[in-house]
Write a structure and sequence with these properties.
The protein has 426 residues and is an alpha/beta fold. 49% of the residues are buried.
């Protein structure tokens, strides 16, 4: 599937290049050609940013092609063959080191680093490899929290997962999340103290540390088993209310469909769905940190964690117009661009200056993710692809009712995480 996607991107890139080249010939053939990839939902904003970039650089003639490519798909292409990728592309910061290791990222100049440090502070760490900057942070909101319909539950109700599910059930509405997307799999384990950390040197994995196979609070089940049991309980006990939207992209679409159908009760997702949920729910739109959850293994309540991550723009080290690509990337994370991105798409800015604006501080989704970061959040750092494969495998087994021996499946899962390091090392 990935090979087919890469082939399509390559063909699309060639077609786009041909069109751009034709346009350039019509205007004298001396235009600087750049390709920019970004999420589909942000295409209008990106095109407007590109036009503003051209206005602010009147001495240069640009021909910039903007193409809808998600952060995940951009990573797949860039990590496989960066020579066919865009000059500038958006990606999730957990892949910074991996992209660097594949030769897909060009180092940011010291002048730009000075500006980024002044405006972003510690957020710039998401773009670093070996203490050098290789990416331009866009946002620090690549985490997840909960939206809900306040006509069916109160703010107090929203603090308990069981109560949220019951309120959705009573109202004939759904609780939605990407249950089999590996990004969410360990969120219950992380909330109760579980850890998985990969040590890296640049793009090289040096080792992995995890306590997921250690016994949890009941002394009988591991942290991984606690997490697996919670997914099993959600799927088994809340049939018809708890809805698995599949992957992140599929869940985004499903959320929109349920909003239209009037079946939306609550959803665990991120800032990228804020505008459409707010538009649909109107005065009943609310957002908050993830609710606490109660384990059926010991009847105790725990926090529900999310990643505290970021999105970045990378500049392809294979770009034929490297300096101009960096100039474009730097503009796309300027304060002007970050404020526009927040206004158009509700994306929380990495810039401290823009984050301090009243409209950002008073935004419900932005407030929710800032609250979530305070509750058992973990940093979204680079991990090998086989880590994500193990996540998806466990979540799929739990959601599908395919776990016969909880402790055995949990131990197998942890071994997969250890094997993931060995595969990455090879």
């Amino acid at each position: 599937m990935r090979k087919r996607f890469i082939a399509l991107i390559a063909c699309g890139a060639l077609a786009a290049t041909s069109l751009v080249g034709f346009a350039g010939c019509g205007g004298g053939g001396d235009a600087i050609k750049l390709k920019l990839w970004g999420p589909e939902a942000q295409q209008n904003s990106l095109k407007q940013m590109v036009e503003e970039f051209k206005k602010q650089n009147p001495d240069q003639k640009y021909s910039i092609t903007v193409t809808p490519v998600s952060e995940g798909d951009a990573y797949s292409v860039m990590s496989s063959d960066p020579t066919i990728g865009a000059d500038v592309f958006a990606f999730a910061a957990d892949q910074t080191a991996n992209l660097y290791a594949k030769g897909a990222l060009s180092q940011v100049s010291s002048t730009d680093v000075t500006d980024l440090e002044a405006r972003m502070g510690n957020a710039l760490d998401f773009g670093k490899v070996n203490d050098k900057v290789y990416a331009y942070p866009i946002s620090i909101d690549n985490g997840f929290f909960m939206y809900y319909d306040s006509s069916i539950m109160t703010a107090e109700d929203a603090k308990s997962l069981d109560t949220v599910l019951q309120k959705c059930n009573d109202a004939g509405k759904e609780f939605i999340m990407a249950a089999t997307d590996g990004w969410y799999t360990l969120s219950f384990a992380y909330g109760m103290g579980g850890k998985v950390t990969y040590q890296m040197d640049g793009g090289n994995y040096l080792g992995v540390e995890t306590n997921l196979d250690e016994m949890g609070p009941d002394g009988t089940h591991s942290y991984a088993a606690y997490c697996a049991q919670q997914w099993i309980d959600l799927s088994k006990n809340w049939t018809g209310t708890f809805k698995n939207g599949g992957t992140g992209e599929d869940t985004n679409t499903y959320i929109g469909n349920m909003l239209t159908a009037g079946k939306f009760g609550a959803a665990v997702t991120g800032m990228w769905n804020a505008s459409k949920i707010q538009l649909a729910l109107g005065d009943h739109y609310e957002a908050t940190r993830l609710p606490d959850w109660k384990s059926s293994l010991d009847n105790k309540t725990y926090k529900w964690a999310s990643f505290a991550g970021a999105k970045c723009f990378g500049v392809n080290d294979h770009s034929k117009n490297l300096d101009e690509a960096h100039k474009l990337a730097a503009f796309l994370v300027s304060d002007w661009a970050m404020e526009k991105r927040f206004d158009d798409n509700g994306i929380c800015p990495a810039s401290k200056t823009v984050a301090a604006l009243d409209k950002v501080k008073n935004d419900k989704a932005a407030s929710a993710i800032n609250e979530q970061i305070m509750y058992s959040s973990v940093l979204d750092l680079s991990k090998p692809q086989s880590y994500w494969d193990a996540m998806t495998g466990l979540a799929t087994d739990c959601e599908g009712g395919n776990v016969d021996d909880l402790n055995a499946r949990a131990l197998d899962f942890v071994q997969e995480l250890r094997d993931a390091f060995e595969e990455a090392e090879e």
